[in-house]
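Technical note accompanying the year-one report. For the benefit of new consortium partners, we illustrate the data format agreed upon in the data management plan: each record pairs a sequence with a structure-token string. No post-processing was applied to the example shown here.
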Amino acid sequence: MRFTTEQRLDGGVLEREFTLGDIPGILWTPASASAPVPLILLGHPPLGLRKMYPRLVARARRCAADGFAAATIELPGNGDRPRWVAAEQARADLRRAREAGEPVSDEIIDALVLPLVDKAVPELQAALDALLSLPEIGGPAGYSGGVISVGIRLAVVEPRIVAAGFFAGSFVPRAMFEEARQVTIPLHVLLQWDDEGNDRQAALDLFDAFGSREKTLHANMGGHTGVPQFAGEDAAGFFARHLR
């Protein structure tokens, strides 16, 4: 891991951009941590770190206010990373289906999501290796948001992730339902009831499939971008309970 930039945000939060091999990322740490702090990995949709930055930094500020470090990395094929032709083709197929008013087929969903999961999860694990080796970060670690299938795989294979907050707003391949049954860590799942791009019943079925003994579904009225502020407060409380 190599830090490339450093700046202090309002409130003294330290923001550092880094590279991990050829993977860009950002780390935020609280202003006045007297001991190593827990870490929350911030997931995000495949839109690029620069486009997602305003939302990510808002989430990171809240993490820092609660005494946690937060970090994120660029997804494969996004931002300044090398083009991923197969992923671009899958996104094009998705756009064509939606523009034609056709249902999104399992084949399109599999092509869109499964290769991303296979590539992104080992990179997140490598990021965990590097971040948890820093003296200011001591664990435990949580995962918040992003492509839900990435979070599912990470929760299954990565024992250092002890709690996860998922956003039920992305396509989920059928194969991921079986992996969901293997998830046992505490979960906080956010569902926007009228999300125009989300299959509500599939989201409910996925929640039912999770094997965790502690799992909470937080459903609110409204579309994909209409998440109420208090939903974020509830998610913050969830991580405070499990990472402290």
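Partners are asked to follow this layout when depositing records. The chain has a mean pLDDT of 93.
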